[in-house]
Design a protein that fits this description.
Layout lengths: L12 H5 L9 E5 L5 H5 L9 E5 L19 E5 L6 H6 L7 E5 L20 E5 L5 H4 L10 E3 L7 H6 L8 E3 L19 E4 L7 H8 L5 E5 L7 H7 L7 E3 L7 H5 L9 E3 L7 H10 L5 E3 L2
Parallel strand pairs: 1-2, 2-3, 3-4, 4-5, 5-6, 6-7, 7-8, 8-9, 9-10, 10-11, 11-12
Length: 297
Amino acid sequence: MQIELGRVACIPHEQLGQGKLPMDETRLEYEGPAFTDAALKAVPNLDKVETVALWDTAVTDSGFGELLRARALIEVSISSDTLSGTVLQLLAQLPALRSLQIHRCSRISDNDLQHLAGCVGLRELYLKETAVTDRGLRAICALPEVWSLILDDTTVSDDGCVSLAEMPRLSLLSLNRTRVVGHGLASLRNNEHLNAYLEGTPATDEGVTALVGRLSNLMRLSLNSTNVGDLAAQALSTLPKLSDVRLSHTKLTDAGLSAFAGHPSLEAVYARGCAVTTSTVEALRKASPRELVVYAS
């Protein structure tokens, strides 16, 4: 979930040179190498901008220093193969920063995360496709307000998840295509409205069973494209608040799917690419006290 801040301002490079940033715009978004350090420097009224999204631009580490003028900046989204942890050191100085979304920045690693330790107002933190490992998570685990943490496509494992137990508000944790098996999540705080994503991980039935034993408030769990099966489904069926479970392309069979029959909160089950029959799917729908949707085609 992202913070919505007014209209989008995708400003052409030539327009920047003319100093034309509409006064009612709070968002600067640019994609591609035509946007350079000079272009960012030329943005007028940068102190009014609240959201910046720069996708594969030519802005360098030093060029990002211009964002220090953006004292109202709340949300930053970046993807780049060239930027380093220097960017985090700069962005950490922004007083209003609440959402930092890093996508595909392979030069950002564990040591760089120490710059974020003082960002106590941060709510969202994306570190997708970075070089962050378990060790780096120890630098951010004390951030008091982070509710959404995205670590997709990193080498984070269950050991790193144990560090996240210190995050008091964490309610959305995405670990898609990491090395997480599942048991590390049993260390998390049992926060309300908890959602977790473990797609494409080495998750196991035993790992899922371990996290279920701890996280009774879990509302959504995605295990698509993993090797979990009926034992994981049976464990998940005991979670009283579970509303959305995703088990597509797993070892789920009719035996595991049937375990969800009559579940009081379940609203959606994903079982595409699994060995489940139409009759079991229909029986599950009929047994539900809600309008259960089962995706099993």
